[in-house]
Amino acid sequence: MENHPNVLAVRAALDGADARTASGSAPEMVLFDEGVHTAAAAAAALSVEVGQIANSLIFDAGGEPLLVLTSGAHRVDTAKVAAALGLAKLGRATPEFVREHTGQAIGGVAPLGHPKPVRTIVDTALAQYDEIWAAGGVPRAVFPITYAELLRVTNGTPMDVA
User: Fold this and answer.
1) How confident is the model over 84-94, as pLDDT tens digits?
2) Which of 10, 27, 40, 127 could make an SS bond with 147 (beta carbons 3.0 to 4.6 A apart)?
3) Domains in the chain, start-ordered, CATH in brackets?
4) DSSP for residue 96
C-alpha cells in the first residue's frame, strides 16, 4: 500500500512543498492495516483527539471542485461557506466527481497530490492543535502536519466552516 500511486503522489507533493511537522521534520506517512474511513476511527487509531483530524471533503461548487479541510470535531455548514465565497449553492459531490478531480476515493482524499490544484478552504478550528492529521490519498494512510503548513502547502484560505 505504501507504493500505491495516490500515496506516492501525496508524498511527492509534500516533498515538493518542503512540508514540515511541528518538530520541523518532513511528514512521515502512517499506514494502517485497515482503512480509517471516519475522523473518529482515525483519531482512535492515532490516539489523538477527533478535532485533530483534518477531514478532506470535496464539494461541487457549480461544477468546480472545492476542497474543505475541516476539523473532525464538527460538520461543514455548506450554506455558510457558500455565502462566504459568494456561491449560489455548494453541493455534496458524488464519488465520481471526487475521483475525477482528486484521483482519490472518498475516505482517503488527501489535501494535496491531486492531478491539478483544487481550491481549498481550511477550517480555522484546526489552528488550536499543534499537530493535525490528514489523509494520505487512500483510507489506510495519514500524515501529520501543522495548521500553518497545511495552509501553506494547499494554498488554502482559512475560514470558520462550522
Assistant:
1) 999 998 999 99
2) 127
3) 5-159 (3.90.960.10)
4) H
